[in-house]
Amino acid sequence: MQELDRAMNIARRIYSLGVAILLTACSTVSPSNDPYESTNRMIFNLNDKVDAWVFRPVAEVYESDTPQWLRTGVGNFFDNLQDVDTACNNALQARFSDAASDAARVALNSTVGIGGLINVASGTGLPKHRQDFGQTLGRWGVGAGPYLVLPLIGPSSMRDTLALAVDIRLNPMAYVYPVSSRNLGTALNLVDTRAYLLSVSSLLDDAALDKYEFTRSAYRQRRENSIYRSDQ
Question: Which of 46, 64, 186, 214 is found 20 to 30 A from 116 (Cα to Cα)?
């Protein structure tokens, strides 16, 4: 309960601070909404090099040397943890039917699905949603603000960057101890996610004349669609 109260206090502070900053930022940003493009491009290029030298090779080894059934189980496990964050944010967005469905997914996959290793819920008619606190802020009218590229994390916005702190606290992984186990789990999640995106990154390399502009446009469209989707 103490951790929950602390997380809610963080959420309230982030929300208030985010609204104040975004109202100021939105009055000064350039028409492209990318006033920090030169810095963003520098970070984007750095991220691209780190990915090429570290993350992508590790992900390729993971994909080639790890059996498909094991990779599926790892992906299901971390998706199940992410469903907790999604359920909380759907509730905060007043999407109570989706929140109840998400909570049911967590309960079913965590028990019958052996700790989330098996995705039982999707086969029972409980669809997977993906919601985060940035989408929740957007749902209640907080603008995205300037486009940002974060070191190692990638494309974001002022609103979504501020929301990260809340999403971290809403993920059960934040409460895993000892810290070494938490760090190991986080690293495994990153590698598994990067392996899942190998085909997408290859397509991006082949298709995009300007990878930065392509990624920026794709990110914005995806975020807008996820926030302003029709109620189910």
Answer: 64
